[in-house]
Every structure is written in C-alpha cells, then in structure tokens.
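Allow me, if you will, to draw on your knowledge of protein folds for a short while. The matter concerns a single protein, recorded as an amino acid sequence and a row of backbone structure tokens. Could you please explain, in whatever detail you think fit, how the structure tokens follow from the sequence? I remain grateful for any guidance, and I place the record below:

…
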Amino acid sequence: MPEFTVRPSAKLLKATYLLAALLAAAILILARGERHGLLYLLAIPGLLAAWAALRHLGLAFTRLTVAGDSLRFESGVLSKTTRSMELRKVQDVLVNQSLGQRLLNVGNLSVETAGGTSRITVLNIDRPGEIAQRILDAAHTKAKGTSE
C-alpha cells in the first residue's frame, strides 16, 4: 500500500476569514460618513482574522502519515510532538462527526492500538470515513504479512 499523509481541514477557517472580511466591510460602510466614530470596531474582525491565522499555522504543522509498517502523528509549530505506532497493532479506528462536520464532510479520526492504552486523534480531517478505511486496510495488510 502506498504512503499517504492526512492533514486537518481548513474549511472552517476559510469561513472565518470570509466572516472577518465581511464584518470589516460592513463596519467600513457604516463608518463611511464618520471620521473616527466606528473605526475602533475594526478590531473585532482584525482579532477574528488573527485568531484564524494562528489556527491555520497550527494546521500546517499537523499531519498523520501512514508509511511502511508505521503510523506517525506529528504536531506543533515551535515545539513538536511525534507519536508513532506499528500498523499491525492498530485495533480500532473511530470517526466522530457533529452535524456541522457532516455537512462539510469533515470529522475527527481516532486510532487505537491493541490494549487500548494508546490513542491518536486528529481533529477535522476531510473525508474521515475514507481515511479510516485506508488505515484499516493498511493495518490488515501488515497483520497478514506478519502472520504468514
């Protein structure tokens, strides 16, 4: 099975950027006739856009990679956390989706190993059911390969 990498979706962040831009435009239209009356309100869309940009940066440095006989999860911008598990030990892959996530076809993916002591969870990934099936297929392929 070929190597593949999964990253969290930026769909919700794109909507946040759009909301910030629309808010800024509305404030500028309302403050058009006034000199300084409503311009302080531009801090609201500015803070919203800054929050989304920080979250976007965090997403860029988060990934789940299936390669060879291992599954590796990496996250972190300044400090980095890496967790690895052997594919043949993967026992359960769980997909959780809220109503909003289902509408956007994103969801949270959790991978558990045998014994249930280790769990990796990746939030808001695109097509979580398809990714879960790919991980299970890779795990079953590795388990068959070691039993023969």
Remarks:
- Helices lie at 11-30, 43-60, 99-104, 128-147.
